Amino acid sequence: MSDAAPSAAPAPSLWRDRRFLRFWSAQTVSHFGDRITELALPLIAVSTLHASANEAAWLTALIWTPNLIAIVLGAWVDQRPRKRRLMVAADLARALVLLSLPVAYLAGAVTLGQLYAAALLTGTAAVLFNTSYSSFFAHLVPRSSYVDANSKLSTSRSVSLVAGPALGGALVQALSAPAALVADAASFLASALLVGRIRTEEPPPPTSQPSMLRRARAGMVFVVRHPVLRATLGCAATVNFFTFLSGTGLTVLFATRELHLSAGGIGLALGVGAVGSLLGAVVAPGMSRRWGVGPSIAVGAVLFPAPIAIAALADGPLWARGGALALAEFLAGIGVMFFDINLNSLQAAVIHDGIRSRVAGAYSTVNYGVRPIGAAVGGALATTMGLRPTLLLAAAGGALSVLWLLFSPVLRIHSLDEAPATAPPPKTDEQPASTPRAVTLSSGTSPQQDPDPSRPALEP
């Protein structure tokens, strides 16, 4: 799907590329830190501040609320000449915000309002990092090594999903949730140091550009008019809305108050369950070759949200309740990797490099923007109808997201070579007359991700 002719030369080994190894190390450290905060932040709200279901849900909602401005921020990032500096600034900002929480806790002054402010600020910094990431990555790694690079990055994230929750649970139990946040702040400082030492040749933005709002609008128009992006955005946004009805805050609350699991038990269950993510990352490329890219996306769209019902129906002795949570996470982990790896590869194959940040921002505004709405609705539903029914609704509604794909070209796409090609935007309105580059990623998670927020993989 690239405009450049394929090269016969073998891809250079990334093991000898110090710049990439620094970046890979930065991402790996940061992923492990994220796993700690995903557990510690809601536990501060639930255990220390005795937050209600609705208050815990708002904590998750505020982390994702900044994605509503991603369409504008992505257009702004397109004009910035040094994406690396923006990524470093985002890492430093998140470290400072997280460090403020244990300081306030030691002073006996931590409040729910401060948690909300921390969630909002770290979420904003994450949007800045993610909209800068895709362009930075394209100029850091040689084109022939994109697949290898994304495989390594995907593996690191999957390993963090396996070991990180158990590590986070142990730290929270040993040190308290606020003290454990110091580890995540340190991970962002390490990431900033490593990324800051990377030197890349980033081409300057064109001197003549349309206004930021026109660039933002162009990104959204590109998504809406493209048959693949339009259908996959509807599918991913539906998945995100319903899975965030039972977002991390409510899941931790449910595991604590309904399943009666300890912080260490929750972390262990999530860590054991996250083996599914690692397994999914390993088997997804092979299954994609067997089933096709489009059908694999459809399988992931069902397999990712449906297992929430297993946790919701958990009962019996402690080992059965913890095992049900782990099994739900295991199956969902496989599903999210099937969904992420194939969907992100397909998206990258049809988006031109010159508009990557603004299209990523437009996509994130809808895809991630529904997350805070879903979390807020989930909190209201949990308050009125209870935690278990809310989780069951999340499982059923999320699985129905596959309907978006049934009447689109996506299910007919077996390989990336069959993805519908698109022309670059008119140079008179959106970009200079340089040759566009469509970057094809394969079996790794998208550089965009996660992002989490934490920076989760579905981070579609």
From TrEMBL:
Ranges annotated as biased composition (Polar residues): 440-451
Domain Major facilitator superfamily (MFS) profile: 227-460
InterPro entries, sorted: MFS, MFS_dom, MFS_trans_sf
Pfam families: MFS_1
Membrane topology of the entry: Multi-pass membrane protein
Subcellular location: Cell membrane
Location of the region described as Disordered in the Swiss-Prot/TrEMBL record: 418-460
Keywords, sorted A to Z: Cell membrane, Membrane, Transmembrane, Transmembrane helix
S-adenosyl-L-methionine keyword on record: no
One term of GO molecular function: transmembrane transporter activity
Source taxon at top rank: Bacteria
A Gene Ontology cellular-component term: plasma membrane
Spans through the membrane: 56-76, 88-108, 114-133, 233-255, 261-284, 291-312, 318-339, 391-411
PANTHER family cross-referenced by the UniProt entry: INTEGRAL MEMBRANE EFFLUX PROTEIN-RELATED (PTHR23513), MAJOR FACILITATOR SUPERFAMILY ASSOCIATED DOMAIN-CONTAINING PROTEIN (PTHR23513:SF6)
Protein name (record): MFS transporter
Organism: Streptomyces reniochalinae
Lineage: Bacteria, Bacillati, Actinomycetota, Actinomycetes, Kitasatosporales
